[in-house]
Structures
1.
Amino acid sequence: MFACLRLDSGEGPDAAYQLASWPRGYFLRNMNQACYQGEHLSFYVPLGAVCVALFCILPPAAVYATIAAYNAKRKRLARERSKQGGSQTAIDKELDYDKLVLGFLFSRYRDEYNSFEAVMQVEALALVIVDVFGRAMPPYQQALLLLAVMLGIAAVNMGISPLRTRLLGLMEFASLIVLSLTITLGLFFTDTGGGAESVVDSQAATDAIGVIIMVLNSEF
């Protein structure tokens, strides 16, 4: 809905012949439509805003609010149980029921980070944003932006270490590193604007990089 691509710069000796020089770019789904004008402004922009609110902002906010309410209820029930001498009561059954219903949101995280599922959804949203808005960028810039976001996600997840088991954390970190290495190695085949000199032109090197990419992704 918001992905636009600039075509002509409107500069240079042939500027008079550059007809697609709208500074905000052209809608990727209809390259004849200038962005933020006409149909794009009246239909796609409002539709995109609604979709962003419903499918991008609302889910992580709802997850965080749900778990925050659960944490508040758990603390309240814990205080009530302590007043009753810590005996097994209906309070414990109520807590068990809440865990059964909401456990899929936080069971794999440590108690102090049980709302981290909302952060995971924001991280997934960041990857979607790169995919949508990165389409208007040159391929190598899109790859670098995606690489930066993935490394940032890996750093946050490993730094906080919210998962209950170390093995799950290592597996998640390994998958992100493999994807990052795949993107990095793929840059050897991406034209960065320097022509043939900016890409690998050796068949042996091409085969070697391809084998490394296949091995990395098959192992993990």
2.
Amino acid sequence: MRNARTGSVMVMTGGSPHVAEISGDADIRHSQDITDMLRSALAAHDVVLVSLDEATCVDVSTLQVLLAAHKQAKSLGKSLAMAGPAKGRLRKLLTEKGFLDVEGEPIFAEARFWVTPLQQPRDLSA
């Protein structure tokens, strides 16, 4: 979906897992659009992968939105994960803000979200 007001592009592809690609500016000006897109994706899909590979700007508000969406997914028994390990602007920001060390390794347990491959939700009915 293209957001004409902000210029950011959010492409949501079908299939399993569902991929939400965020490109353009992923900053405070677009945080509500990104939040809405992730909520919609989680409402419709059990597994959502987020790609920021094409983002030209990423700020701390994007980190907050993604972590909140990850927490929401877990509470719903769903999965939201990064499409791949953090790199480029995202990795630099995560290092500056104390999530990753200079080698790109998580500094604390919750920071594994940025570098750990997707873990499917557990089937608790078995």
